[in-house]
């Protein structure tokens, strides 16, 4: 699409941000197009525009919202520019440091600036459905002595009812609430009461309550261990000197990293700055939120995608206005609209959930470090199992490194035992079981003692696939190249990628045989076996199916934490962040699942998951025990995790990555192409690979194109090209040139994923 009314700046940078204001402005327009656009500043807006403000501009045949990025002195010659249409927000909705962070992100991740910039705003503010000042509502307030004059309303029963309602509800209620309680005619009756000087009607800002109506009581500060004191002392020194640096806080599970976070946040708030605390998944937020609110109360605002659009806008607005100065949330919390940020904490920094793989493939952990650099803030990366990137950076002296060596209260780490399923399943009686004999016995003993257990199986559903025993074919999704997973609860075969579901066929779709059988296992099957073998046990299941309803995460975890259930069966949701003292047993049902994925991080993720889930056991007064079922007991990711030999695993994995040129000892770019036509998609991927080879000759190693491991999703054929380089600069330079030459195939979707995490 060409625009004669605006000039697009080539590349991803509009120039320095400290240029003096003038008659031209560079904008990031809310449109999926590369580059920045130059517009005229009309006379009525001269002196009023600032960087970070939200405006509306003519774009194409309509109008689009845009963000002011930079004032410029000249535009490309030969174009007749159009003026900015109107200013939508008086105050900048993006601070200077956040604006610069987003500009860096747009260039680094090779995404349209407008999409990157507007991702930092909640949907209602982004779409201008709710102004940054907030939505408003009409409120009725009972005036003094109005209740005593209610006897005058004998001939107006609705008015009398409204006076009674207001008197009984504290004297003030939103008109919408009165209408719900009293029915039709309320607004006319209130206007009559206003004329009689019994009620005052006014407009007030409306705020939703995504957080608990009553704040949890403030908890006493825990007595710090020697390791915690040293770590907090080092962070205090860095904060007092206002050092902009990154610190890896490595601590075994249960070592008290959260208390160190909270102590550092207190120091930052005391000097008037704000803090951001990031967690990898929403499922971790409820428990941590309660603890953070107990310490900081109403200063805390929560940002994550499980909130309704209105709640997200309200929480964003509380941070934007300065009412809240602590932002707690998942990946997008890195964009919190705090005016001054002194500290950013990235909890469980190793978690792949910080990397978004669709549309805007940014990494929240890495952007936290970029924003901290812009803010002059301190970044703390906390984890028991550092990512190889964080470990390598700390080991090479590029970041600080603090270690919490033991658990709080001198509690011992749980004892870990490996169960070799090859030997266990040699017994024909055990082959049909999800739980091996040793794990079943350990679970029985745990239940007899009145203690709790967690069973981890990183696969949901009941059975992995439905297979014909005659022709050997599984039932596949018609739109995706994956087998349909059987879900016992509603007896359906379901695709976990597109959501398609069917009834299990009575006969094989391929050969017509009636010998269809279910194979494999998932959390539903594990839950069923626990219930069958332990009829008196109270069992909960935590996976994407059981917590699909809003608020289900918090309800389920709260139930288990209160001791209202004995066994929690779940996917990776149960592996991290949960501190439940009653849990003394953790069983890993099948540790090998992730090792067979075509992903160079497969071993690292398996090691991290095993160490993390093992850490859920033994956090109370009773010692913990962990049983790991596996077909590969000698694999380093399993054997070293069982013995908590983190350093040895990191060195083994680094040596392997060095041989292959993979991160953190090399840089990657994954170019994904999807197309409804397989031949066209393959040809397009081949053309992109050829351009990358030609432009990057001698500097880049280009692998592919090849079909993606998941070759078809939602009836779109997927291909990928993997590009390797010792440094990121050649990747950036060559990719930017290739993007400028992208063919105009409207049916194709092309994504350049810098530093990819999802290789499927």
Could you characterize what this model shows?
It is a single chain. Helix 11 (364-375) links the parallel strand 14 and strand 15 (378-383). The chain is globular and about 85 Å long. With 760 residues, the protein is of the alpha/beta class. The chain has five domains: 7-120, GIY-YIG endonuclease (3-Layer(aba) Sandwich); 136-205, Arc Repressor Mutant, subunit A; 226-409, P-loop containing nucleotide triphosphate hydrolases (Rossmann fold, 3-Layer(aba) Sandwich); 415-462 and 521-655, P-loop containing nucleotide triphosphate hydrolases (Rossmann fold, 3-Layer(aba) Sandwich), CATH 3.40.50.300; 667-754, 2-Layer Sandwich (Alpha-Beta Plaits), CATH 3.30.70. Helix 1 crosses helix 11, helix 17 (602-614) runs parallel beside helix 18 (636-642) and helix 20 (678-695) packs across helix 21 (728-740). A seven-stranded parallel sheet has the order 12-13-11-14-15-10-16, with helices on both faces. A six-stranded antiparallel sheet has the order 1-3-2-5-4-6. The chain contains 21 helices and 31 strands.
Q: What Rg, in angstroms, do the CA atoms define?
A: 29 Å
How would a textbook summarize the main sheet? 7 strands, parallel
* Averaged pLDDT: 86
Number of strands: 31
Strand content: 15-25%
Distance between the termini: 32 Å
The CATH homologous superfamily of the largest domain:
P-loop containing nucleotide triphosphate hydrolases
CATH architecture of the largest domain: 3-Layer(aba) Sandwich
Helix content: 25-40%
Quickly name the level 1 CATH class of the largest domain. Alpha Beta
Number of domains: 5
Question: What is the overall shape?
Answer: globular
Residue ranges: pLDDT <50 for 5 or more in a row?
A: 1-5, 15-21, 213-219
Q: Count of DSSP helices?
A: 21
Based on secondary structure, the structural category is alpha/beta
The strands making up the biggest β-sheet line up spatially as 12-13-11-14-15-10-16
CATH topology grouping of the largest domain: Rossmann fold
């Amino acid at each position: 699409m060409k625009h004669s009314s605006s000039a697009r700046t080539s590349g991803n940078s509009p120039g320095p941000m400290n240029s003096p204001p003038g008659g031209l402005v560079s904008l990031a327009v809310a449109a999926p197009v590369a580059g920045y656009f130059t517009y005229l500043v009309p006379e009525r807006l001269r002196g009023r525009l600032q960087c970070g403000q939200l405006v509306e501009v003519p774009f194409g045949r309509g109008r689009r919202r845009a963000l002011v990025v930079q004032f410029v002195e000249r535009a490309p010659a030969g174009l007749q520019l159009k003026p900015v249409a109107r200013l939508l927000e008086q105050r900048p909705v993006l601070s200077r440091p956040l604006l610069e962070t987003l500009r860096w992100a747009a260039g680094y991740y090779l995404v349209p600036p407008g999409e990157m910039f507007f991702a930092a705003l909640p949907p209602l503010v982004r779409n201008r459905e709710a102004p940054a000042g907030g939505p408003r509502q009409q409120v009725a307030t009972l005036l003094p002595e109005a209740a005593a004059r209610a006897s005058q309303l004998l001939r107006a029963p609705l008015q009398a009812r409204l006076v009674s309602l207001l008197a009984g509800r504290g004297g003030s209620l939103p008109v919408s609430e009165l209408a719900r309680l009293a029915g039709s005619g309320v607004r006319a009756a209130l206007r009559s009461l206003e004329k009689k000087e019994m009620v005052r009607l006014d407009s007030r800002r409306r705020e939703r309550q995504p957080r608990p109506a009553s704040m949890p009581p403030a908890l006493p500060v825990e007595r710090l261990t020697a390791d915690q004191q040293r770590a907090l002392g080092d962070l205090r020194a860095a904060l007092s000197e206002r050092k902009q640096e990154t610190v890896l806080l490595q601590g075994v599970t249960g070592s008290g990293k959260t208390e160190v976070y909270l102590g550092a946040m207190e120091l930052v708030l005391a000097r008037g700055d704000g803090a951001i605390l990031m967690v990898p998944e929403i499922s971790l937020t409820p428990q941590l939120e309660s603890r953070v609110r107990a310490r900081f109360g109403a200063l805390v605002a929560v940002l994550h995608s499980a909130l309704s659009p209105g709640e997200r806008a309200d929480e964003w607005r509380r941070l934007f206005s300065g009412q809240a100065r602590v932002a707690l949330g998942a990946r997008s919390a890195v964009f919190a609209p705090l005016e001054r940020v002194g500290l950013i904490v990235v909890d469980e920094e190793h978690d792949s959930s910080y990397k978004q793989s669709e549309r805007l493939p940014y990494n929240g952990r890495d952007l936290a470090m970029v924003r901290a650099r812009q803010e002059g803030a301190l970044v703390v990366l906390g984890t028991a199992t550092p990512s190889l990137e964080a470990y390598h950076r700390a080991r090479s002296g590029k970041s600080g490194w603090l270690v919490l060596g033991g658990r709080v209260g001198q509690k011992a780490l749980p004892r870990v035992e490996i169960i070799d399923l090859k030997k266990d399943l040699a017994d024909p009686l055990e082959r049909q079981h999800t739980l091996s004999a040793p794990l079943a016995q350990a679970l029985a003993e745990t239940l007899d003692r009145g203690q709790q257990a967690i069973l981890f199986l990183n696969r949901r559903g009941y059975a992995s696939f439905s297979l014909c025993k005659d022709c050997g074919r599984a039932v596949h999704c018609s739109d995706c190249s994956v087998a349909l997973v059987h879900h016992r609860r509603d007896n359906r075969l379901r695709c976990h990628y597109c959501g398609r579901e069917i009834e299990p066929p009575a006969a094989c779709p391929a050969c017509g045989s009636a010998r269809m059988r279910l194979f494999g296992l998932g959390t539903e099957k594990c839950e069923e076996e626990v219930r069958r073998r332990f009829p008196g046990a109270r069992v909960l299941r935590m996976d994407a199916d059981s917590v699909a309803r809003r608020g289900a995460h918090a309800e389920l975890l709260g139930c288990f934490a209160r001791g209202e259930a004995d066994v929690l069966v779940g996917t990776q949701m149960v592996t991290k962040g949960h501190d439940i003292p009653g849990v003394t047993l953790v069983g890993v049902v099948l540790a090998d699942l992730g090792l067979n994925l075509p992903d160079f991080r497969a071993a690292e993720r398996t090691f991290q998951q095993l160490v993390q889930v093992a850490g859920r056991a033994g956090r109370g007064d009773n010692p913990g025990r962990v049983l790991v079922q596996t077909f590969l007991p000698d694999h380093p990711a399993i054997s070293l995790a069982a013995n908590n030999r983190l350093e040895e695993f990191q060195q083994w994995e680094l040596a392997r990555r060095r041989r292959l040129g993979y991160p953190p000892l090399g840089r990657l770019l994954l170019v994904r192409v999807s197309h409804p036509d397989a031949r066209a998609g393959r040809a397009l991927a081949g053309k992109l690979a050829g351009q990358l080879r030609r432009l990057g000759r001698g500097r880049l190693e280009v692998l592919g194109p090849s079909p993606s491991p998941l070759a078809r999703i939602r009836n779109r054929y997927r291909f990928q090209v993997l590009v390797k380089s010792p440094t990121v600069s050649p990747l950036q330079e060559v990719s930017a040139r290739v993007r400028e030459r992208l063919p105009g195939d409207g049916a194709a979707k092309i994504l350049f994923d810098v530093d990819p995490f999802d290789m499927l």
